[in-house]
Specification:
The two termini are about 40 Å apart. This protein has 10 helices and 26 strands. Strand 25 and strand 26 form a beta hairpin. The strands form 8 sheets. Strands 1, 4, 5, 6, 12, 13, 14 and 15 form an 8-stranded antiparallel β-sheet that branches. It has a 4-stranded antiparallel β-sheet with strand order 19-20-21-22, with no helix packed on it. It is of the alpha+beta class and about 475 residues long. The protein has 2 domains: about 290 residues, DD-peptidase/beta-lactamase superfamily (Beta-lactamase); about 70 residues. InterPro entries: Beta-lactam-related (IPR001466), Beta-lactam/transpept-like (IPR012338), Diverse_Enzym_Activities (IPR050789), PAPs_N (IPR015914), Purple_acid_Pase-like_N (IPR008963).
């Protein structure tokens, strides 16, 4: 179930070392695969070189009855995943940054400049004409987080749409705001913002968003596994993809609307707005990719908009899109930032320069320019049984990302303590290596404890039990020997 690439620990010029704990990662994800997590694919790059490229588990594990299939399909390094909201970054944002570098887009411009029909006000005098491109990028335009255009029981007849052109008209001319724009407003993450940004790309370029990124970015990079609506391409079949929901979009047959899919989704975008209302071509969801292509896409950002002498945008454009929003520094222009280290999925060791994004299907990327490193984790955590409003895959740490991303850190440390057991005094030495704590005692017992963030890990050893928590500098670590606590 595990296919490993190369791995190493690399010294940085500032004498910090990046520790990529291959054994720790493999053991942790592998254990969760055994416990029921469906599948995961991980790639870590540094200085443009692959440090680790590994797949775990299955791309297809269950049938439509949530029964384990006899011949489950193993993930491969080429398996493609539904990126979900990573589409926002690696399709829409890349297109916008490319257009900005050409002078075809200014984020301070009103949306109406690019979509002339984007005008009109609501009863509270919130007007489309006042909305700027950057309001959409920072999720401060005032739109609700989502609208179920595809379900006539959730919207009025004027807003029901399973047609891309009608949906575009609704978003551009009818959809109302739920709050004021910009100013000191906190961001409210919204798919609508990026559906509209995708339309901005199409209006400026005269091309559909999939064609724009294909011609101007993906083909230039030599990407062969990154595209929208991949099953429309004769080169791909369902078995090339990691499966998502078992019963289409029905949540175990608890949801119904016209034309709802009820079969296992594999190679079709899961997102309902994208699939039913936008024909799979939307700025917020719909892109598929695999590990190799994602490593190239993330490297473009690490290279400040270039790749192998091809320039897609310049440093000024990239800096602009990574500028923290004044009232919430976890938001740049689309990108999520580790600026104040409040987003847990960045893990403990990502620098405050790190940025990235996540996707609902179980996908995540982190790009850390301080360490010239990028990490992509693609999972199919939604390819699990659904009960009581929850996918079983959501309970596993692999699908929460942070437990994987803390597996690279800086500089090992050593701690020494003593404890008494009976009439004997023992010396206890701790060696921190990334998130691995190796402890040895003078009773000739050598063991290894794996620490995951602030979670407790209990390891039973010879004549003693060690309890460690919250492995961080300047922290007192408590361990237990027999019935006695020590610190």
């Amino acid at each position: 179930m595990v296919n490993n690439g190369s791995i190493t620990s690399i010294e940085v010029t500032d004498s910090e070392s990046i520790i990529v704990n291959e054994e720790v990662i493999d053991e942790f994800i592998g254990k969760e695969i055994q416990q029921g997590f469906p599948g995961a694919a991980l790639i870590i790059t540094r200085y443009g070189k692959i440090l680790k490229q590994t797949v775990y588990g299955y791309k297809l594990k269950y049938d439509e009855n949530a029964t384990l299939i006899k011949r489950a399909q193993l993930l491969t390094l080429d398996t493609m995943f539904d990126l979900a909201s990573l589409t926002k970054m690696y399709a829409t944002n890349y297109a916008l940054m490319h257009l900005a570098a050409q002078g075809a887009l200014n984020v301070d411009d009103p949306i109406k400049k690019y979509i002339p029909q984007y005008c009109g006000c609501n009863p509270d005098n919130e007007c489309r004409e006042t909305r700027l491109i950057k309001d959409l990028l920072t999720h401060t335009a005032g739109y609700t987080s989502s609208v179920k255009f595809y379900d006539p029981t959730k919207v009025s007849s004027d807003f029901f749409s399973q047609d891309k052109y009608k949906t575009e008209e609704i978003i551009e001319t009818k959809l109302e705001f739920q709050r004021p724009r910009g100013g000191d407003q906190l961001p409210v993450y919204s798919d609508i913002d990026y559906m509209l940004l995708g339309l901005v790309v199409e209006h400026i370029s005269g091309m559909s968003i999939d064609q724009y990124v294909k011609i101007n970015i993906y083909q230039q990079l030599g990407l062969t596994h990154t595209l929208f609506n991949p099953l429309n391409n004769r080169n791909y079949q369902k078995s090339d993809f990691a499966a998502t929901e078992l019963n289409g979009n029905t949540r175990n047959h608890t949801i119904n609307f016209p034309n709802v899919r009820t079969y296992i989704l594999q190679g079709e975008v899961h997102d309902e707005k994208s699939f039913y209302s936008m024909n799979g071509l939307s700025g917020h969801a719909g892109l598929f990719s695999n590990l190799n292509d994602m490593s190239i896409l993330t490297q473009v950002m690490l290279n400040n908009g270039t790749y192998e002498n091809i320039k897609f945008w310049n440093q000024n454009v990239q800096d602009l899109f990574l500028t923290p929003y004044a009232y919430d520094p976890t938001y740049g222009l689309g990108w999520r930032l580790n600026h104040n280290k409040s987003l847990s999925w960045f893990g403990l060791y990502a620098s405050d320069e790190a940025y990235g994004h996540t996707g609902w299907t179980g996908t995540c990327t982190i790009i850390d320019p301080k360490y010239s490193m990028a990490i992509t984790l693609l999972t199919n955590k939604r390819h699990t049984p659904y009960f009581n409003g929850t996918f079983d895959g959501e309970k596993y740490e692999t699908g929460k990302y942070d437990q994987i991303f803390i597996s690279y850190g800086t500089n090992s440390s050593q701690y020494t303590s003593q404890y008494q057991y009976g009439f004997n005094l023992f010396t206890l030495e701790f060696y921190q290596n990334g998130t691995t704590m190796i402890y040895t005692t003078s009773d000739v017992c050598e063991e290894k404890a794996i620490l995951w963030g602030a979670q407790k890990f209990i390891d039973s050893g010879y004549m003693h039990t060690i309890l460690l928590e919250d492995l961080r500098p300047s922290t007192t670590y408590f361990y237990q020997v027999g019935n006695n606590d020590h610190g």
